[in-house]
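Technical annex, item 7. During the second reporting period the consortium partners agreed on a shared format for inverse folding records so that results from different sites could be compared directly. Each record opens with the tokenized structure and is followed by the designed sequence. A conforming record, contributed by the partner at site C, is shown below for reference.
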């Protein structure tokens, strides 16, 4: 909490650029997502069977974002955010489901013809004419490709 968010009136230790670099999102977007999920059952802070409070919703969200931002295993950021693997796995999967549910209409939809034309123009300027999806369609030879180096040594 002290690293990334205001804590007891003190400014965060990491500025906006550092936050964006570590989580691949702006802090404002994280707070927007947090506002949407904090009232859902998994994300609410509850009391466990031993009478102790569970993890904070923001703690679970940051763990899920760390896993997704770096593509790491669930146990790697566990030391930093202090959550067990099962909670981090469930938080990540629940966050992905929430993202698909909420943002599907805006971002997970087929592109319109105007968008495809704009992408095609932008890629032509970059030197990849006719490429819409990725550079895989260009059939470039990569000089450092392991198969390209086969038999060289």
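Designed sequence (site C submission):
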């Amino acid at each position: 909490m002290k690293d990334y968010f205001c804590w007891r009136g003190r400014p965060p230790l990491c500025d906006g650029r550092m936050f964006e670099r570590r989580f691949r999102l702006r802090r404002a977007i994280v707070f927007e997502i947090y506002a949407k999920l904090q009232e859902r059952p998994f994300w609410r802070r509850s009391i466990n069977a031993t009478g102790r409070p569970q993890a904070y919703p923001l703690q679970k969200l940051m763990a899920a974002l760390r896993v997704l931002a770096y593509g790491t295993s669930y146990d790697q950021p566990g030391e930093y955010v202090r959550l067990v693997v099962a909670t981090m796995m469930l938080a990540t999967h629940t966050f992905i489901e929430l993202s698909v549910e909420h943002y599907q209409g805006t971002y997970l939809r087929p592109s319109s013809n105007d968008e495809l034309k704009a992408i095609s123009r932008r890629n032509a300027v970059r030197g990849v004419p006719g490429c819409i999806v990725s550079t895989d369609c260009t059939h470039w030879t990569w000089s450092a490709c392991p198969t390209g180096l086969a038999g060289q040594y």
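The chain has one domain: 1-133. The radius of gyration is 21 Å. All partners now use this format for quarterly exchanges.
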